[in-house]
Write a structure and sequence with these properties.
The chain is mainly β and 373 residues long. Helix content is 0%, strand content 38%. The radius of gyration is 19 Å and the shape is globular.
């Protein structure tokens, strides 16, 4: 078994867990060289074992093409985006029928780019996608017939790369602001460049404008910096958590502070606090994680893992993680991209075998319904 560890985060996290210590040399399935492993900081104690179960109780839809973003509409229907086909489909969760809601123009699907994260607010659907020259966020009105109107650009100019690290996380926060997780566009120095939108958590109004306060600097969209490639964003009551791809040593779960610097490319995983960087709260080897989607539900964070092919549960209390992370469905359903609460007490889990990196079986890709206790 690979290792995972909880690390101290500004004295807020009391429990720390460590399993086996070795690091693999593979990357997160990205076409880039491996980075030599280094030892982490000393670990002061063991966290308690978590208790809880997760069970797949049904398939909502199948035969989906490279699914990525997923939103639950007020009437219970789902919208799911296809990274490679650049289509948003509407799914009836009762019978699994799939109909086209929108076909986006101007989406570039090279490498890891394409139609990525999605969010919903006030009868409008927001989508993060790669274009010819940049990554951008667009929005579309939801029509009465269930289709989406033509898209309008909310924010453009997020740096892109032809192959990797385009980010793509997108979600509304409890403050009604729109948050986006961006990648470093295969140029690690951009993550530390305060004038670049790459390698950041961006926070903006629904119209794509900087909010009056709450970001790193007035007039800036940058909420935090020093990120390598963020695809999952989730809130507990009022705290923002993000899942982040490492290079080859440690994938990360980070608790976001406004204006915080999370260390990439100077640090992957822990070890940066003495230099003013914020260390991750939990770390995994890429073989167990390569995290994409993230959700908060029933007192825990749920993290979908691509290369790790499993769903992680990270129990939380007021101080942070309260027990060892739990792994569910390891290698049962293949690569897992997105996890979203369905609004009725269950989770929706999106598999991702048809994105050119998996080994699709008959029926892939799927939206699975997960019951938890």
């Amino acid at each position: 078994m690979g290792s995972r560890r909880l690390t101290a985060h500004a004295a807020a996290i009391a429990a720390i867990a460590v399993l086996a210590a070795g690091c693999g040399t593979d990357t997160n399935g990205e076409d880039e060289p491996a980075v030599p492993a280094t030892d982490g900081p000393p670990e002061p104690g063991a966290a308690p074992e978590a208790e809880g179960t997760a069970e797949v109780v049904g398939t909502v839809a199948e035969d989906l093409d490279s699914p990525w973003g997923l939103v639950v509409l007020p009437d219970g229907d789902l919208l799911v985006g296809s990274r490679d086909a650049s289509v948003i489909s509407r799914v009836d969760p009762e019978d699994g029928s799939v109909t086209e809601a929108a076909d986006l123009s101007g989406v570039d699907t090279d490498g890891e780019g394409g139609l990525l994260g999605m969010a919903f607010r006030d009868e409008q659907v927001y989508a993060y996608h790669t274009a010819a020259e940049d990554n951008r966020i667009v929005r579309m009105d939801l029509r009465d017939d269930g289709t989406l109107a033509e898209s309008e650009v909310v924010l453009s100019g997020i740096p892109r790369d032809a192959r990797i690290h385009n980010g793509g996380g997108l979600a509304f926060g409890p403050d009604d602001m729109l948050y986006a997780g961006t990648g470093d566009a295969n140029d690690p120095a951009l993550a530390q460049d305060e004038d670049s939108l790459a390698g950041k958590i961006l926070r903006m109004t629904p119209d794509g404008e900087p909010p009056e306060e709450g970001n790193a600097e007035p007039g800036s969209l940058v909420h935090s910096l020093g990120h390598r490639n963020v695809q999952g964003l989730a809130w507990d009551d009022d705290q923002l958590w993000v899942s982040e791809f490492g290079a080859s040593e440690w994938d990360e779960l980070n608790l976001i502070r406004p204006g915080g610097n999370y260390g990439w490319p100077h640090h992957e995983g822990s070890g940066g606090e003495a230099e003013g960087y914020i260390d991750p709260v939990v770390e995994w080897q890429p073989s167990e994680a390569s995290p994409s989607g993230l959700a908060f539900h029933e007192g825990a964070l749920w993290m979908a893992a691509l290369r790790g092919e499993r769903l992680w549960r990270i129990p939380l209390d007021a101080a942070g993680p309260s027990a060892e992370p739990q792994s569910f469905f390891a290698h049962e359903y293949g690569r897992l991209r997105t996890v979203v609460p369905d609004g009725d007490g269950q989770l929706l889990l999106v598999t991702n075998e048809t994105d050119t990196r998996g080994n699709p079986d008959e029926g892939d890709d799927r939206i699975l319904r997960v019951d938890i206790t």
